[in-house]
């Protein structure tokens, strides 16, 4: 289903295709602990399987998929993202079946997909779109298929806020001023913590709690759901990250779901 909101978000994501990798955390950067990488590597008999990259973005995952699986499909609803993914791959782009469409339009892949992967792409701000997409992915999987994903974590923003608040208090700020500093440094004006939403430069995204991720995957028909964390180093990509290197790392949520 293509809605007015979907079309508008497609335009916004296309506008940001050229600088996407600079604006958002990359779960495949050196120093990141990403459990999805070894999980994909452990899929048995990859040379006989079809893998689909859902919301492929600029294509950072595609070289890994091409190196392992018999057939690779990439889908994104933003044309400029697909163009960037093609450019990333160079001549190898001809080995990927690219489709410009929303991720809930998978009827032609019903019962065909062995491995589905969605990296920071199950972020539709309307949860009806989320539910439709997860159900479509479930229908696309063959018996024995697996769905791997990473989603941004709203509770990680709350964790970062806690550390920023403590730092402000330790510097001698009064509680009200410490609250203000922590909210400013963690960019609370971009987030709706009640509904797990994020808005930035016209982009609107869903951020997740672990309990909601488990709930929505099971609601879509996945019988087995295993959650894990992608752990990010404390560096310039996180607010005042250099001050928190002795603390447990911030995270996004990773999952492995099976019918």
TrEMBL record:
Keyword Transferase among UniProt keywords: yes
Residues in Methyltransferase domain copies: 52-145
Keywords attached to this entry: Methyltransferase, Transferase
Gene3D superfamilies referenced in this protein's UniProt entry, alphabetically: Vaccinia Virus protein VP39
GO BP terms in the entry: methylation
GO molecular function, one term: malonyl-CoA methyltransferase activity
EC number: 2.1.1.197
UniProt keyword Phosphoprotein present: no
Matches recorded under CDD domains: AdoMet_MTases (cd02440)
EC class: transferase
Superkingdom, taxonomy of origin: Bacteria
Protein name, per record: Malonyl-[acyl-carrier protein] O-methyltransferase
Organism, as annotated: Tautonia plasticadhaerens
């Amino acid at each position: 289903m293509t809605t007015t909101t979907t079309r508008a978000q497609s335009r916004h994501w296309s506008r940001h295709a050229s600088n996407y990798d600079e604006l958002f955390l990359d779960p495949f950067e050196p120093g990141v602990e990403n459990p999805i990488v070894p999980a994909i590597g452990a899929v048995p008999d990859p040379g006989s399987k079809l893998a689909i990259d859902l919301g492929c973005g600029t294509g950072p995952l595609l070289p890994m998929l091409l190196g392992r699986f018999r057939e690779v499909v990439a889908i994104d609803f933003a044309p400029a993202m697909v163009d960037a993914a093609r450019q990333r791959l160079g001549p190898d782009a001809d080995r990927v079946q690219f489709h410009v469409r929303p991720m809930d339009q998978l009827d032609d892949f019903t019962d065909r997909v062995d491995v589905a992967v969605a990296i920071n792409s199950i972020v539709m701000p309307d949860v009806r779109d989320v539910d439709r997409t997860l159900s479509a992915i479930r229908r696309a999987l063959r018996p024995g298929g697996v769905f791997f994903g990473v989603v941004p974590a709203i509770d990680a923003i709350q964790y970062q806020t806690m550390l920023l608040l403590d730092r402000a208090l330790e510097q001698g700020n009064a509680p009200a001023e410490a609250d203000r500093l922590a909210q400013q440094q963690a960019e609370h004006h971009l987030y709706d913590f009640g509904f797990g939403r994020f808005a930035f430069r016209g982009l609107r995204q869903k951020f997740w709690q672990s309990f909601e991720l488990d709930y929505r995957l099971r609601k879509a028909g996945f019988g087995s759901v295993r959650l894990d964390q992608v752990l990010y180093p404390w560096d310039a990509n996180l607010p005042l990250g250099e001050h928190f290197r002795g603390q447990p790392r911030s995270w996004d949520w990773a999952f492995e779901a099976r019918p």
